[in-house]
Design a protein that fits this description.
Blueprint: H1 8-20, H2 27-36, H3 42-49, H4 55-69, E1 77-80, H5 108-120, E2 125-129, H6 135-155, E3 159-163, H7 169-175, E4 190-194, H8 202-209, H9 220-224, H10 226-232, E5 237-239, H11 250-266, E6 270-271
Parallel strand pairs: 1-2, 2-3, 3-4, 4-5, 5-6
Length: 281
Amino acid sequence: MSGFILEQGVVQTALRRARERVDCDLHEAMLERARSGEGLDADDVALLWYSPLSTVRLLEAARAVRRRAGTALETFSPLYITNTCDAECRMCGMRRSNRALTRETADPASVEAQLRVLVERGMHAVALLTGEYRRERRDWAIDVVNRALRATQDLGFRHVLINIGSLDPAEFDRLFNGIERNADGTIAPKVTMCTFQETYSREAYAKFMGADPDNPRADFERRLGNFDRAYDAGMRVANPGVLLGLNTDVAFEIYALTSHARHLRARDVEVYLSVPRLRKI
């Protein structure tokens, strides 16, 4: 299967069709499909977004699915190994131009000590986070995360989330050096790649991430393809997301995020969705 492709014109056409069908009689049937847990594609989600159905009814349908399927709750702790960053994202306090932020990087012993504290407190999942870096500096970040990842396996963590930005194919090999693999080459422990697109609108993305090639976050297409590269590297868990507030067209973001998730599910990837909100300061 080829990588995920997002054609903004296709998304806009689909949303226009959904708006034009706002008075159709399909909404009740669509809601019942959602309630039954059959699953909805991006066109279905768009139709529900523009439907006259109340939010209360949509939430009730979602709760019905959870009651029938069961609710699995997992708590994880974020562990920032460093707050240094080469990226220049206007909405982020870690951006490299923010001189008000005191930069700190934990040494390996401190990282392992913090992981032990989490284990002692009964935590079984952890997110390992760094900033994002230019190509010539990424090996450093990959190596410190690899060391922390290996420590999580020695300590018995059940789930590790990785949030270090977009990686190239060879960099995934470096990241998973020393990590157990299954016979088919997939990563044996549960390791999730977290790469929020933040916004699927190329215009909004350029507004907040810029277009300067010196900014490792500025390449929209490279970031969009990170989950497919992770899949090729043996990862089978993904966490895409959008930062609500970057793009005023929320319907566009929901449609694109749903399409991305469906693409990953078609590759038999376990998917977690995140929809954080931009807070005014």
